[in-house]
Amino acid sequence: KEEMQTQKTEFYSKMFKLVLPIVLQNLLSAAISSADVIMLNYVGQTSVAAVSQAAQYANILFSVLYGVGTGVTMLCAQYYGKKDFEAIKIVQGIALRFSLAGGLIVALPALLIPEVMMKIFIDNPETIQIGASYLRIMSLSYICWSIIEVYLSALRSVGRVAICTVMNVIAFAVNVGLNAVFIFGLF
Length: 187
Prior knowledge:
Layout: H1 2-41, H2 45-81, H3 85-112, H4 114-119, H5 125-157, H6 161-184
């Protein structure tokens, strides 16, 4: 009985060490979006509306990347348990191709025809112009996000959640800092 209790305690301890950073990562991801909206609110409602509409494409991409990431996490965790590191590399490669394809499908139109993308959601010319500008700037980040998500998912699957958490903290800090520079004109 005592051995079983020790095993339970060890299991819960390991789970806590894995789950807490993942929860923190998800909170930081939500905080990044919230920080954007809060800071844009000081600029004006048109900017908030434009960015909110433009962000619909990021939400679609996030759904695709979340699906790819979930698949990577499950498969890599299985292969990690079997100590099949070559299979993990293969899974990452395949996932990276899918992820990049999704990122390019969103990034290229965002860079080349953002006005057309905005017209799908809204018909106000001023809002379209602001949203198109935002999409053009964000287009490169969609590609980066596509790459990073695969690697973060693979790291989570092998128990390296601390690296992922640190990356999310850095992303949040950089986002808030760049928002302050570009939205409020600091520095």
